[in-house]
Amino acid sequence: MLTSIMKILARKESLSMTQLAHEVGCSLKELESALEQMEHMGYIRNEQFGQSCSSSCGSDRGSSQCEGCGFASSATYTFWVLTERGQTIVGSKLK
Amino acid sequence: MKIALMGNPNVGKSTVFNALTGSNQQVGNWAGKTVERKSGLIQRANQEIELVDLPGTYSLTAYSQEEIITREYILREKPDVIMAMVDASNIERNLYLVLQILELAPRVVIGLNMMDLAQTAGITIQTAELALALKVPVVEIVAAKGKGIEEFLTEAIRVGTLKQDPLPGEVSYPEELEQRIQAMEDLLVDTPWATKYPLRWLALKRLERDPEIGQEWKTIPTKSRKSTDKDSCCDPGDAINYELQKTTVLPGEALLQAYEAEGWSKDHFEMAFADAKYKYISQILPKFRAHENPSKPTWTDLLDRWVLSPIWGYPIMFAVLAVVFWGSFVASAPIGGAVSQGMAWAANVVVRLLQWGRVPDFVQSLVRDGIFAGVGAVLAFVPQIAIFFAFFSFMQDSGYLARAAFLGDRFMQLMGLHGKSFFSLVSGFGCNVPGIMATRTLEDPKDRLITMLINPLIPCVPRLGVMSAVVAAFFPGSRGSVVMLSLLLLSMILVMFSALFFRRVVKQTERSAFVMELPLYHIPTLRNVLLPTWQKTYSFLRRAWTFILVASIVVWALSSYPQGVPMNATWAGKMGGWLSFIGGPLGFDWRIMVAIVFGFTAKETTLSTLGILYGVAADASQSIAQAMTGAMTPLRAYTFLVVYMLYIPCLASVVTTYKESGSLGWTSFGVAYNLILSFIMGWLVFHGGLALGFQ
Questions:
Q1: Predicted confidence (pLDDT) per residue in A23-33, tens digit
Q2: CB distance from B408 to chain A under 8 Å?
Q3: CATH for B2-160?
Q4: Do B58 and A11 touch (CB under 8 A)?
Q5: Over B49-91, what HEC string results?
Q6: Does B420 touch chain A (CB under 8 A)?
Q7: pTM listed for this prediction
């Protein structure tokens, strides 16, 4: 299962969790477990992408007139990406 | 008797430990570590039992302090039995650790906890079948209610007192792995290691080049270290954790090097072993676990089949956006008209009051032609913008916006853009400044640079708001949503081709993928729609009262002096005249060029500048929309929208690009690229439109 996931990630196309579970042929829970294990092993990383300004935004010279933070969406996206180690193993021939 | 209590974090170990030991506990730290060590004494059948609560871990590799402690305890202290706790409601995750425990120690009893939660989730587990599959006893417990804990301990004592080690189930690895494991076992069987560790486990760890095992070899006296390897080599070990002496010869080194030459690195072995365990879990799971309606798709699954479809996903996305724009144009039309009239009336009243108070003429002009015409022009579109924000919040809270972002990334794949780059672009739809800042999450500096350079091509919320306001004035009704969609499509296409162009400029070739967790669909709550709508509208209004007010006063001054001359002879008029060599080919008069220049500071300023230069307040009977439609044709308006959408978002975004890239050269390149691209696209639209007979 882990190797299948890595091989799919090696195709360099983005997938949703449901799509990946469907491709691997496992349940969503099994996939979550496998992804957590791969994260633990250091091949992938879980990232949360929130849209926020830096703490200095609006207070420093460059962006003092920006005030764009009010328009930034509060949406947060969670996704898994390959780490450098994961990229290396994907780049080599997976067994 | 010594019993170790093990399991994943949050599996209920502490509850069982506390129930069994009561107040008879010793709490401290593991030697040399900051991890808490808990042990307790239990008396059962005239036998004193030491129960050790090991740290919660997900596996027994050497990646964390908790794992190393747990593994070392089992290997060195050799407990008589291990009580392995498993969460029945998440058994897939928990069995991975159990399989690793079984490779280390044969005397294991499984405590199947949270059976009540599993039942609530529609999961049934046949305990006897699980015991049969793993060949170890399994006891059902509900630790939170104290059920089955005593039976769990009784079974552990029984297994711990067995005269012979039982033969638990073993993961069978694929043949090519088994051969390599066997070859390593043959090399290690005569080493001092073999007397300390289970041979198969040792072979697995050696193939993975486990750093802890290498370190352990160092502690073995040199005389007894004799390796069966003929080649003398040294293992650098894991440089992060340990630096082995170069003279230390580890058994099996020559074999490992031979495997590496075949393409089997330590990472390949580690991945293959973990993979085999997961495959084994998938194979045995159906034997003991049943799930009510496991394959019954949820509403989210059903909707996603269409919404995320590579064929239907994009038409659906454009249909949703069309509804959003159409809805915001139609719903805002009556309110927008009323606000415009209200602004004109207020301007009239204030000016009359100023006349009554004999306030100097230039102050009257400033209030009427500067503040009301400028700030009023922006405020007149607030209802339109607020309704657009409300639709945007609705899409976000319903879970659709995340899907649209996901679809957008698949679109970007065509151009080889980094998966994570797309999320920075999605941020750009809110505001380009945080969008540019969000590129910090990209590790590759080339990815960062490309994403920073294309981010300004994404129309931010204020730009979209102003654009929808201009579109509503020139293309009323359903035509407006078509025009807005065409502009967004143009923006997406230019983002794609710019990404392709920049990839060539900075010589970027690689793209990486991601797996995205999408939220469930749900009906948005009123609060989750209204609150962000208010926050965005408030930000818009705040900018109107601060930034746009100042800009309006400056534009008023430039367009009012020298006094007594026609407007095209004022300072603003002269400035516009100088820029006519750019505006002329695009069909823009001097006023539009001045508005575009002022738009560099903030995009809404363009609207306020147009309001002043078209003299909205001078003729109180007409709104900004009427004034603009009277002075521009639809083709010129569309050309203006294209140029407006593509040239730099605002000064703050340029400064942010400079700060984030640290390069004045790339910042200048980005600004020049946006300006040239907007000019070329504007020229193509204007002359293409004329050639097609549009006015």
A1: 888 888 888 88
A2: no
A3: 3.40.50.300
A4: no
A5: EEEEECCCCCCCCCCCHHHHHHHHHHHHHCCCEEEEEEEHHHH
A6: yes
A7: 0.68
